[in-house]
Amino acid sequence: MRQHIANWFPLIRPFTLTAGAVPVLVGAALAAWDGTFYADRFAALLICSVLIQAATNMLNEYEDYHRGLDTHESVGNSGSIIFGHLTDRAVLRGALVTLSLALLCGLYLVITVTPWLLAVGAVSVLGAFLYSGGPKAVAWTPFGEAQVFVLMGLLLVGLGYYVHMETITVQVIVAALPVSFLVAAILLGNNIRDMVGDAEKGRRTLVIVAGRRVGIGVLAALLGGAYVVIVTAAFAGVVPWTALLALLSLPLAPGIIRRFQTTTVPVALHPAVKGIARLHLVLGCLYAVGIALATIG
């Protein structure tokens, strides 16, 4: 049993699962600030979102294996298939089971909130499939960062707000931008790390098309842009002043950019990719807590 868990656990790429949780936290905090919060809806969406992220990671591993992208020297993948810990069929079944569990949580929201959420869920599942699968996987194009910016940022924060308020506003979309910037940065950092091997396999990610220097520049803009939006939104009243608590995460950002500027070795860059995920988690949690603090009193 322990070995079975040890084989599956790396496959879901635990450090990336926060990308599914943080937007839901921020959306819920914004809803609470506006006066409404349902614990059951929050829990259902949180579980659903994390499960979809886990399933996406499994599908990504499956598709990368079949497209010849993963090797014994690859960095960032779990190695579950390539090293023979799990068969490719088992990984695909695991992804489908995980998506089915996410669907059950989603159905609870469809029943308690609105049937229209079924369409949103379908878009999310389709996005998970098209990112790595299909005749032209988005992950092999320059549009991967744009997809996660929308689906794992704007849409998911908006959904995290909608399940409580049953409406959406422009202010919520603006407030979601810092989360969108950082989740896109996670993928961009991953693609910068892997750009040499990816190019050899025929991938045309944003950093391969635009070049490493531009890619690092975009990465810096995404990290810096998250803080600019938070400060601007606080001054504009889009989020409460207490949301500036997120600025406490700022010292984590410079070291990430320095690492990408000083080495091209994938193994050396992997901690920096994890660092972006950590920044996304820390900033997102501080941001959500800061917004929630405004509801006290």
Defining traits:
single chain, 297 residues, mainly alpha, Farnesyl Diphosphate Synthase, 12 helices, 0% strand
| Helix coverage percent | over 70%
CATH topology: Farnesyl Diphosphate Synthase
Radius of gyration, whole Å: 19 Å
Mean pLDDT: 89
In one word, what is the shape? globular
At the first level of CATH, what is the class? Answer: Mainly Alpha
Largest sheet: none
Could you tell me the number of beta strands?
A: 0
Order of helical and strand elements: HHHHHHHHHHHH
Helical/strand content category: mainly alpha
CATH architecture: Orthogonal Bundle
Number of helices: 12
Strand content: under 5%
pLDDT < 50 stretches: none
Number of separate structural domains: 1
Taking the alpha carbons of the first and last residues, their distance comes to 49 Å
Please describe what this structure looks like:
This protein is mostly helical. The chain has one domain (2-293): Farnesyl Diphosphate Synthase. Helix content is 71%, strand content 0%. The protein is globular and about 55 Å long. The N and C termini lie far apart (49 Å). The mean pLDDT is 89.
Write a compact overview of the structure shown.
The chain is mainly α. It has one domain: Farnesyl Diphosphate Synthase (Orthogonal Bundle).
List the helices and strands and how they pair.
Layout: H1 2-8, H2 18-33, H3 39-66, H4 88-112, H5 117-132, H6 144-165, H7 170-193, H8 195-200, H9 206-210, H10 212-236, H11 253-262, H12 266-293
